[in-house]
Amino acid sequence: MKITKPLNLGLAALAGLAFACGGGEKSTETSTPAVTESKPAEPVQEMSLEEKYKDDPIYVKGIAKVKASDCTSCHMVERKIVGPSYADVAAKYESTDENITMLAEKVIAGGVGTWGEVPMPPHPNLSLEDAKDMVAYVLLLK
Ligand code: HEC
Predict the structure, then answer these.
(1) Which interval of the chain is the signal sequence (predicted)?
(2) CB-based burial, 15-30: b 16+ in 10 Å, e otherwise
């Protein structure tokens, strides 16, 4: 009895606080993604994408060209920095010839608006072949 009473009071105070901060509904909404995010513990997640594909010829060829260019200053494999992460790009596009060509042309011409307001600068010195090898590597990373 002595324990439950102050606890109830505490909960009531918390509920009051949540209301004070702009409505109970919103506060439950924001707490939901945090709960679902910690749920999936699939073994796939334990191996980094780099590890997973490091022996794939598309990976080996593509990463060499990506590293020789400026891509890594704006893109990381699994984290968004200036540009989207390669994993996010790979999740968005299927690895088809059409998509590889379309994205390679975008890397060469530059572009904006697909991922936000920040533009990707053009890479006019890249050949279409090199850009396609890079994009094929990017789209592998899923
Ligand atoms: C100065 C920063 C910067 C550099 C350097 C850069 N990118 Fe990007 N990249 C971006 C940004 C920002 C976007 C998102 C553009 C958009 O929203 O349309 C992007 C988007 C992309 C996309 C997805 C395009 C789409 O339409 O979904 C690919 C693929 C890509 N970059 C590959 C590369 C490759 C390969 C290189 C190296 C040759 C490179 N990027 C260099 C900033 C950069």
Answers:
(1) 1-20
(2) eeeeeeeeeeeeeeee
Q: Which of 58, 67, 94, 107 to mutate to test the pocket of ligand 1 (most atoms within 8 A of CB)?
A: 107
Ligand 1 atom, smallest distance to 117 CA:
17
The pLDDT tens digits for 24-74 are: 555 555 555 555 566 666 655 578 999 999 999 999 999 999 999 999 999
Domains annotated for the chain, with CATH where assigned, are 4-37 (no CATH), 47-140 (1.10.760.10)
CA 128 to chain centre: 25
Binding site membership of 135 for ligand 1 (Cβ less than 6 Å)? yes
pTM of the model: 0.76
Ligand 1 atom 32, closest CA: 107
* Tens digits of residue pLDDT in 94-108: 999 999 999 999 999
pLDDT above 70 covers a percentage of the chain that reads 68
Residue ranges of the binding site: 71, 75, 120
